[in-house]
């Protein structure tokens, strides 16, 4: 089971590390290995959230997610996206950005450093919205009830998450402007960059959310049609072509999953800039990590882990919220990437431990009920 699910990930790991060694020796080998671990640690929340959607899909579409979906995730978000970031922030075309990364790494590093406030503001706002929309939703299962209950009540206020995100963005931009003014620097325009990039991140999230909602609605429509067709078939005694209907529903779910997967890729890509500025090493390391994340998603589904450990999804979203806060703080202050990775791991481990305790408590209650019934 383990080899079947992670087989491609193991193979890509070997190929990627060998390619890194040929490209830049043992130093490049080490960088790619670190990036792979970073991507896995930062994107474990990605796997948990994705698994909640993927578990509704058939084995065929799970394979599609691991094949065609990988092309989108690895080559689209992990290779093209870093180049686009540098190209946009440095006002270059993508070809010049790639050329610069190979032929003038010092200048390229300078451009990436200058682009960090824009990257952090964009990514921070995007991830903050994911967290806020989750935490303000009223849920049957709550993990940290003392936080989630009052926030779920507040979540009934329309557009509250957008308002809070904009307030956080304004505070971040004002902090940057105040710091520049106090130190007599000529970087007040950095505050404008933070503000504009943050708004762009917010708009991107709203667009992605709109598309996701569209795909969800389509999926629900297809499932409802399938159910009605099956009921009609039972009444008339005819067979129904459930495969075609399931195929449509699964297709919309696949599109929805890809939109979400792309949105979660920002943290790993942005975090990678703190370790290396070389496009080739970044693509190799993040690509390997992305393969493991996708395999882990399928593994969680097939093992039924999310159903057994119900707080994992909560822990993943809290990790996203923490990462959003860290990104916004790094606009002005430097934070070690080890801390960034560990925060997510700790929160998810905590939610896993809480799930285990919950399961044990439920088993104990069932045991008591059985004893009482027997008496």
UniProtKB/TrEMBL annotation:
The entry's keywords: Membrane, Transmembrane, Transmembrane helix
Signal sequence bounds: none
Transmembrane segments: 5-23, 29-53, 65-95, 115-136, 157-181, 193-215, 240-257, 269-293, 314-332, 338-356
Recorded superkingdom: Bacteria
Keyword Transmembrane helix attributed: yes
Stored InterPro entries: DUF475 (IPR007427)
Keyword Transmembrane: yes
Designated name of the protein: DUF475 domain-containing protein
Organism expressing this protein natively: Streptomyces drozdowiczii
